[in-house]
Amino acid sequence: xxDPANWLAIAMLAGVIFxxxxxxxxDCRRSGYQPGAYFGIRALWLVCKLWHxxxxxxxxxxxxxxxxxxISNHTSTIDPLFLQCASRRVISFLMAREYYNIKxxxxxxxxNKPILVNRTGRDTAAMKATLRALGEGxxxxxxxxxxxxxxxxxxxxxxxxxxxxxxxxRVPVIPAFIERRPHTNNLWIGITHPANxxxxxxxxxxxxxxxxxxxDNAALEQVTQLLMENIAKLRPKRDETR
Length: 242
Fold this sequence. Notes:
42% of the residues lie in helices and 13% in strands. By secondary structure, it is of the alpha/beta class.
């Protein structure tokens, strides 16, 4: 026969389990992930926090619902993981098909419903898939540089596709800056080398002055420059990275 103290301890434990389960269920519902994917991304979140030291600087400015484009500099092969772990929304990243073809990692890639891109030329299928994702109210993550930029002291030249997409859809465009060392295009180094990464978010970029104008090459160049300037402005001073 259990004494009252034991019954109280059991009741408290049951209460903790119940409210923890309820909190996880609510978080899962808000995140937009299926339960299996939710626990998978939470495991990756722990890897980001404990191994790579990922910490967002500033609140996550992504809208709670509806479509948006998240743009960032590109420092390493696992940048999408850093941005996802710093954000509350599910982010579908544009991903080079050669990375997705790594069979061992496909279950991880599929957690975020990536949009596959062929980097051999103009990829109309990827553009249509991106428009469809935004039409479904998803957040799309794009690295405008189009590839990893290995110079840690600068940002690479961007391609005009992101500007075209932003003007065409008129969805919120939010900049981010990833600070990490080393910059690397080696997948194994990116995963195993502790990055001490920081993710800096900016406010949505106002592109409304360009919506009703001509979307010719000159306009796309101006918008592309504006996008990259907003990313560059988030670059921290050296003492802010600690």
